[in-house]
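Ticket closed. Logging final result for Trehalose 6-phosphate synthase.
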Amino acid sequence: MTDSSRRVDFVVVSNRLPVDHVVDDDGTERWQPSPGGLVTALSPVMATNDGAWVGWPGRADLDLDEFDADGLHLVPVRLSSDEVDRYYEGFSNDTLWPLYHDVIAPPHYHREWWEAYVAVNERFAAAAASIAAEGATVWVQDYQLQLVPRMLREARPDLTIGFFNHIPFPPYGIYSQLPWRTQIVEGLLGADVVGFQRPADARNFQSAVRRLTTATTSQTAIRLPDGRRLVAKAYPISIDSASYEQLARRPDIRERARQIREDLGNPKVVMLGVDRLDYTKGIGHRLKAFGELLAEGRVSVEDVTLVQVATPSRERVDAYRQLRDEIELTVGRINGDYGTISHQAISYLHHGFPREEMVALCLAADVMLVTALRDGMNLVAKEYVAVRHDGDGVLVLSEFTGAADELKTSLRVNPHDIDGLKDAIVQAIEMPQAERRRRMRAMRKRVLEFDVAYWSSTFLRELAASKNP
Ligand code: ADP
Ligand code: F6P
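Final structure:
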């Protein structure tokens, strides 16, 4: 809990702060941007709103006071290493994450993980309550903190409380596996507005509310037995589109994109994948499709190169360790089987990059491959579109992403259908320029108009209007 006397009118609460505290091998301590779409989306929102951001600084057992960084007021929440094991790696990322992503990997249920989840949610709620001024707005983020809305409401009925879920909310048939399904739904019902990425997620949540509580629902409204009303609906998240386009117009970044193509041996076609190394992202399916195309001679390494950025993620969770081994084995095999001295099939990069380099990669790529098996939104897809101010480039996009609801002129794929995915990759490679431009124009209109400022202002406006008298 914070002991500062400072109180603010707007508080964001998320598992992670926008920066992680890291210690290099030589003992140097520093802060670096933390991974994931949540931070990408919320950083520009917080830069334009005065307020505080409550979150974990990314390392265990770290006692830190509140501090200001890059114009943001950050309130660190301490997690012990046992809590990192049980609340973050356990319940958040080995129970909820696979359960909410269609059980692509088996969720594990452990009572001691749940107990840690409750205790840590209480700590986040207490930190938010102690920094929030009378009548403040508190915006709680994502699946790690689903109990916080109710805890906060009980402690501070004066607050206006929003919740946004960045990942999918599963159909009841899957959700009902969760031994603590009722407690989670009741936790979320503490909010005034519960936001989701897609209308389907909001409907799944409402169905869980009807099955597990005595609340009633009508369209986007939920009425609780005590008469309190709340809203549950979709607010698709986005990016600061204009800032990506601005970066893409910078001469040094354009030159860097040219350099990347040259360093790759100037192939006719550069394809790109950018994902946290997560089993939801369908990286293995993408590699299988590309490997088969090379094996069948439908594409050649002289003509087509795949750059795969696989960002390190959750490396102490077993399923992520195994995934890394599988992906790196597959990349090694494909490169061994099809690479030549001058041309590699796959350029594989397992580390973070500055935003400028990500933009240069998008500019350098003729085809962006997003083949997630399930993804709340997928901001990488929107970033590719925002960067392509030249109107060129093809986005191959899984229909199982939130982004597919909006980017309807992408080349939509079912990544489970490897033959269909292979055909889509060939179609992307061979697509005539006029068709590429027509498709990209429609997607750019959407991404530039419905940017992250639109997302946050819509959510916060409806949150302000929803406050019960
Ligand atoms: P998720 O939230 O599941 O990680 P998203 O695609 O929604 O997936 O968001 C990922 C964000 O992280 C994007 O803004 C993307 O540009 C960024 N990102 C992914 N990999 C890297 C990397 N290696 N270096 C820097 N930024 C990255
Ligand atoms: O939105 C998905 C999300 O899980 C965020 O909550 C999270 O910050 C990000 O992806 C990255 O994951 P992690 O914080 O576990 O590294």
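The chain has two domains: 8-237+453-465, 241-449. No further action required.
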